[in-house]
Amino acid sequence: MGAVVGAVTVTAKVAVAVFPRLSEAVQVTVVDPIGNNDPDAGEQLTGTGPSTESTAVGGR
């Protein structure tokens, strides 16, 4: 018989960086205070509608 010759197949997968660099988002918010208005110097008017007071009437 003759010599046995074998074949070898080699498969390689090369890694490719999809995201080669890290990403960092920076957000800056600036707020300037502008003082508060106190409408009517803090007064609060209330109505003088019908009374909501009730009295229970009953006996034993």
Task: Tell me what the structure shows.
The chain is low in regular secondary structure and 60 residues long. The chain has no helices and no strands. The radius of gyration is 43 Å and the shape is elongated. The model has no long low-confidence stretch (mean pLDDT 75).
The first-to-last residue Cα distance is: 126 Å
- Rounded radius of gyration (Å): 43 Å
Q: Report the biggest beta sheet as strand number plus sense, adding barrel if it closes.
A: none
Helix content: under 10%
* Average pLDDT taken over every residue: 75
Number of helices: 0
Give start-end ranges of low-pLDDT stretches: none
Categorize the overall geometry. elongated
Strand-residue fraction? under 5%
DSSP, total strands: 0
Broad structural category: little secondary structure
Main traits of this protein?
little secondary structure, 0% helix, 60 residues, single chain
In short:
The chain has 60 residues and is low in regular secondary structure. It has no helix or strand.
What is the fold's blueprint, element by element?
Elements: no helix or strand
